TrEMBL record:
Annotated protein name in UniProt: Cysteine desulfurase
Biological function: Catalyzes the removal of elemental sulfur and selenium atoms from L-cysteine, L-cystine, L-selenocysteine, and L-selenocystine to produce L-alanine.
UniProt EC number: 2.8.1.7
Organism in which the protein naturally occurs: Pricia antarctica
Gene Ontology biological process terms, A to Z: cysteine metabolic process
Cited CDD domains: SufS_like
Gene3D superfamilies hit by this protein: Aspartate Aminotransferase, domain 1, Type I PLP-dependent aspartate aminotransferase-like (Major domain)
NCBIfam families, per the entry: sufS (TIGR01979)
Length: 404
């Protein structure tokens, strides 16, 4: 069991007021809040050992290098990667996906097929469209049903010996659906295709074992799991990372440079050009320590309880419709109320100190599928409480009374 009142004390921001009301923060799928343990790691870095890493002979540089590489090992252990050099520090999921998409431009031929799920964030669509334009590869979509579940029989039909890559999120940010990635991966491997799983929404809720699931590429943004913005990771199987060319050229990623020819550094440095977000990487490691100290099983169980409680309470409101009713889902509730624009509900909730997201959630194809401009999205974290859910429900009822 998780002690939510004790946990809340770790998050200073949860004490602040917004519009004269105690903040109720329910926009966790956009970014999570930061515990003081992670802030302490950031302050410690800038107070005590701020220096550029790798190659520095002085003490500060060595300390910063050790802590940065220790963070890489923490990430490796957390996701159970076989090698620490399979963990590439990036600025987040968007960067990770672009890195892989760029690399595949040297591996694809005209007519090769790429399969994308119908419920992707734009960052797992646009880089592949750009890749398809550059290479002549064809992008095909795995459709979904009204509950927000992928149609796996259609997936079977789409897979062929032309399929080179499949990309899909582990959990949808707009609907909360947990996708059957084990089956997706096994079937893709059956036709010799590689799989990239966008784990931006899953890593904050589920402990992922990349070896057990036989994942080729997995992407994470630290800011969605109690870490800072501007840092994340790409996990890639060594054999795949070795096949991909570097994404950016510059310092840190080279073995030797002459004006005639440059040779590249070994993994992971080949993909880490320039001075990285050193403090961010270290703080990412601190965020993983923090979440593991609570425990992912306890987190998942508690968030599921919040999801069920909130779903039931919200459905009591007349005219409220939830988008994304998959059997297997996490703590995201996307909804609309007949006759009211989501933006108006979000604005009234903000006046009550309640932060939710409104709009298309960077997933316009999902909104097109349902024929709506957007939704109101409440997304829960392990520091939220049932009392906060009650505040949300009361706020939505108030909005309905004012607007209808
Ligand atoms: N994929 C999913 C499923 C997401 O929820 C997000 C963030 N909303 C992203 C990708 C992009 O992450 P970032 O903006 O941190 O690169």
């Amino acid at each position: 069991m998780l002690d939510v009142q004790k946990i809340r004390k770790d998050f200073p921001i949860l004490k602040r007021e917004v519009n004269g009301k105690l903040l109720v923060y329910l926009d966790n799928a956009a970014t999570s809040q930061t515990p003081k343990q992670v802030m302490d790691a950031i302050v410690d870095y800038y107070s005590n050992y701020n220096a550029n890493i790798h190659r520095g002979v002085h003490t500060l540089s060595q300390e910063a290098t050790d802590k940065y590489e220790a963070a890489r090992h923490k990430i490796q252990n957390h996701f159970n990667a076989a090698e620490s050099h399979e963990i590439i520090f990036t600025s987040g999921t968007t960067h990770s996906i672009n890195l892989v998409a760029n690399g595949f431009s040297t591996l694809l031929e005209k007519g090769d097929e790429l399969l994308v799920s119908a419920m992707e964030h734009h960052s797992n669509i646009v880089p592949w469209q750009m890749l398809a334009e550059r290479t002549g590869a064809i992008l095909k979509v795995i459709p979904m049903n009204l509950e927000g579940e992928l149609l796996m029989d259609k997936y079977d039909d789409l897979l062929s010996d032309k399929t080179r890559l499949v990309f899909c999120n582990h959990i949808s940010n707009a609907l909360g659906t947990i996708n059957p990635i084990e089956e997706i991966i096994q079937k893709a491997h059956g036709v010799g295709a590689a799989v990239l799983i966008d784990g931006a929404q899953a890593a904050p809720h589920i402990k992922v074992d990349v070896q057990k699931l036989d994942i080729d590429f997995y992407t994470v943004s630290a800011h969605k799991m109690c870490g800072p913005t501007g840092v994340g990771m790409l996990y890639g199987k060594e054999e795949w990372l070795n096949k991909l060319p570097p994404y950016q050229g510059g310092g840190e990623m080279i073995a030797e440079v002459t004006f005639e020819k440059t040779t590249y550094a070994e993994l992971p440095h080949k993909f880490e050009a320039g001075t990285p977000n050193i403090c961010g990487g270290i703080a990412f490691g601190a965020a993983l320590d923090y979440m593991n100290s609570i425990g992912f099983e306890a987190i998942a169980a508690y968030e599921h309880e919040l999801l069920e409680y909130a779903t039931q309470k919200l459905l009591d409101i007349d005219g409220l419709k939830i988008y994304g009713t998959a059997k297997n889902k996490t703590s995201v509730i996307s909804f609309n109320i007949e006759g009211i624009h989501p933006y108006d509900i979000g604005t009234i909730l903000d006046k009550l100190g309640i932060a939710v997201r409104t709009g298309h959630h960077c997933a316009q194809p999902i909104m097109d599928f349902y024929g709506i401009p957007g939704t109101v999205r409440a997304s829960f974290c392990f520091y939220n409480t049932k009392k906060e859910v009650d505040a949300l429900v009361a706020g939505v009822k108030r909005a309905v009374n004012m607007l209808l």
